[in-house]
Every structure is written in C-alpha cells, then in structure tokens.
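Lab meeting, item 3. Inverse folding demo.
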C-alpha cells in the first residue's frame, strides 16, 4: 500500500458575489498556477471590478494559510481558482405596448486554493 503525503493547502471562498462568472473567468485564467506575489501583482494592475474581488479572495486564502496552517507565504502558489455560477435574480423591465423584458442579475461563487511549492 502506497501512502501519499498530505499536501497542505489553504482555501478561501466568496459566495453570492454580484458579478457574472463570464466576466470573472478570464481573470481567473491569468492567475492560475502563478506564485502568490506574482498573482497579487497581476490582479492589482488588471482593470475592472472582477480583479478586485478575486484579489480579495486570494489575500484571504493567504491569510488563512499563514494563520491556520502555518505556511510560509513565500512558498505559496495559486493551485486552483474558479468562478462558478451562483443564483440568478430575475427582474422585469416594462416595455412598450404592455410587454415585459427579462433582466437576469447573475451572481458568482469565487474560490481560491493555495498550496506550498515542494
């Protein structure tokens, strides 16, 4: 029986964030697999609301790694980052001649996993 060493990882999750996952996914692709410092630098200089939200979750995961798992922040990298679809609020806008137009206000769940380099 082969025993595998348990890889220490720190996670952070932001749920019900009021931005569409379609707008977040290109930003998640920028930082996936990068070192922690490099990922935070990329997010800091990427324009848009989505990069600020993802940066906040990455910083939270880094704080969790330091405080809860006693990991060295210099050895951390972004192992996983995702933006999944959350619940959608459905609203209506009045149109001409008694019509109604659907408005979908989408939300996301952002998750980040940090691991130590071996």
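The presenter then showed the designed sequence:
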């Amino acid at each position: 029986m082969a025993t595998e060493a348990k890889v220490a990882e720190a996670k952070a999750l932001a749920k019900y964030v009021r931005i569409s996952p379609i707008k977040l996914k290109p930003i998640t692709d920028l930082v996936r697999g990068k070192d922690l410092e490099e990922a935070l630098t990329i997010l800091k200089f990427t324009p848009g609301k989505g990069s600020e939200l993802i940066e906040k979750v990455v910083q939270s995961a880094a704080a969790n790694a330091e405080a809860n798992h006693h990991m060295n922040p210099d050895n951390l990298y972004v192992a996983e980052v995702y933006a999944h679809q959350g619940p959608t609020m459905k609203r209506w806008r009045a149109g001409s001649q008694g019509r109604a137009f659907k408005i979908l206000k989408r939300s996301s769940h952002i998750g980040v996993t940090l691991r130590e380099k071996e």
